[in-house]
Amino acid sequence: MEQQHSISQAYEIAAETIKNAILQGQYEAAKGVNRIQLATYFSVGKYVSANTRHGVWGTGALETISSRLRQLLPGLRGYSADSLKLMRIFYEEWKELDAKSLEPEGGKDKPLITIHELNNSEGQQLSIRELQFTNSADFPIDDFFKVPFTHHSRIIAKVKSLDERLYYIHRSAEEHMSVETLKKAMANDDFHHQSDLPNNFIATINKEDLARKAVMAFKDEYLLNFINVEEIGERDAADIDERVVEQQIIHNIKKFIMTFGHDFAFVGNQYRMEIYGVEHFPDLVFFNRELNALVVIELKTGEFKTSYLGQLNAYLAIADDKIRKPHENPTIGIVLCRSANKNYAEYMVRQYDKPMGVATYKTSAEMPEKLRKALPSIDELKKLL
Question: What are phi and psi of 148, to 5 degrees?
């Protein structure tokens, strides 16, 4: 009987201790500081872990403590027995971040987070304001604290490897993902379907195997030595000679352009498409037998711009409506530009519902000298006319 009373008293103390931590955390979290809320959950998780894994708490402890918390703090949400278990998991999965869980070895860098202990003794409750954390090149601590607890719980439940967890944490923080968007990204296994080519294939191509093939079909960088990139896209009559040169280049280097892949067939360049009396001329059109889809490639001489995706999106819509055969898959588009911020391009391309990607290219001036000398110059090609 005395032992039962002692255990009940321990649970009462535990509820009171967690209550005080919650109140302090809510005060700080009300200021919009997500890291304070995460610190509260991390600390509560540590406290619960220590007492359930190695302490005297028995079966039903978390239910009892949760019930008492609701009595102490009427209207309290987020501290059910299941939530307390999630906090415990949150701490246990990330306990290597706790400065008091690990001792630095041989002068190595200190752990990233210092969480002050929850203590049963009066006057020694958790001091949220004293939370400390250190930035590290190897761990995105800023991203970590930007992501809500619900997102962290979903990531922990679904993903086991550190690299994969950090990927989804970064995505969640950078793109302000909703829980549903995060769940979809993990269900689509975005981490393992990453490509160096910024693209939206996984999200826009309905057939999973086809989407994966599309990811594998394109490179993130191509060598366009034979194309007079300075004249691409110009349609002024005064540039007709360069247009002819462009035609001659394409005819002579077809095999070289086929470095896109052996399943690509060249359809045409400056390919005329018309809708409602308005003409459009995408730079290059291919057909990929493996993907069973047209591929529209728009060449740009400068750095990636978001307007290129809008232009490409229009080409894809027209190609699907006017050129694509009934048995073919939706047309895929690639913006091929001189340079691109890949993270930015990846983000922007995901805003479209047509399958497209962004690749970059190099010209002969950027090629190794030995290879450059082995290829004909533009002047030599002009002599062929």
Answer: -65, 160
pLDDT attached to residue 260? 65
CA distance 44 to 90: 10
Integer Cα distance of 10 and 121 in angstroms: 11
Please tell me the predicted confidence (pLDDT) of residue 336: 86
What integer pLDDT is reported at residue 193 of this predicted model? 67
Nearest 10 degrees: Cα torsion 377, 381, 383, 385: -160
**Amino acid (1-letter code) at residue 270:** Q
Q: Side chain identity at 159, as an amino acid letter?
A: V
Kindly report the backbone phi and psi dihedral angles of residue 39, in degrees, each rounded to the nearest multiple of 5, phi listed first: -65, -40
The Cα 332–Cα 74 span in angstroms is 56
Q: What per-residue confidence (pLDDT) applies to 224?
A: 58
pLDDT per 10-residue tile (average), the chain, 385 residues? 70 82 65 75 89 83 91 88 94 80 45 52 43 61 88 95 91 85 84 81 87 82 56 42 46 53 79 94 89 91 91 96 95 92 93 94 59 49 45
Tell me which amino acid residue 91 is: Y
Torsion of CA 97, 101, 105, 108, to 10 degrees: 20
The C-alpha atoms of residue 370 and residue 209 are separated, in whole angstroms, by 40
Q: Which two tokens stand for residue 13?
A: 């103390």
Q: Which fold has domain 201-382?
A: Trna Endonuclease; Chain: A, domain 1 (3.40.1350)
Angle at 194 between CA 192 and CA 200, to 5 degrees: 125
Name the amino acid, one letter, at 18: I
Strands, E, within 278-385: which ranges?
A: 278-280, 284-288, 293-299, 329-337, 356-362
Two structure tokens written together for 1:
């009987």
- Quick check: 48 and 90 in contact, CB under 8 A? no
Distance between CA 242 and CA 223 in Å, rounded?
20
Extents of the domains making up the chain: 2-134, 201-382
